[in-house]
Task: structure prediction
Amino acid sequence: IVVNEPSVVAVRNEEGARDIVAVGLRAKAMHGRTPEPVELLRPMRDGVIADYVVTGAMLRYFIRRTCGRNPLFKPRVMISTPKGVTSVESRAVHDATIEAGAREAYLIPEPLAAAYGAGLPIDTPTGNMVVDIGGGTTEAAVVSMYDIVVWSAIRIGGNRIDDAIVNYVRKKYNLLIGEQTAEEIKIKIGSAVMMPEIMSMEVRGRDQVAGLPKTITITSE
Result:
């Protein structure tokens, strides 16, 4: 892993022009701290391109981070996409990658990429099931002999889970928290099944009634 950063871009909107302010971790750190002309965008939504220009700028940034500003050779890039994307959506991802500075661009279905990364024996004539929960999509697939046998996908992912945590804390505790805090709760004490040990963490936000900062303790129950 050379670069591990979120697909978030900070954009300044002034007089009809858009300038890229920050990308990745720097942009995410600006959440809730930016002046009015600057907004945070997620150019990839539900696993496909929502903003072509901003996506190109983000890919260009990541390529420069890994290969340098003026690489001797343009890199060959492989990008994972949801299994159910249309040919138009796939073409948009391919073209944006080439325009960002790649010599060649290859697309691989996300479930197959997840199976590769997890080390599943996908070269055998046996079924291996993989569930990939991304930011915008969740996919389940059975992989065998280097290909996907059967699959299903919904355009709901980690971002929707973060929104659910924000809404839950607001309704139960009258506390307003941001997306970053919700993601931290999800990573630290969240679980899809009941855990043998109850975990807890302190969460800081703004009280809806008093409007003042407040700290509460949330458990994994």
Summary: The radius of gyration is 20 Å. DSSP finds six helices and 13 strands in the chain. The mean pLDDT is 87. Residues 52-67 form the longest helix (16 residues).
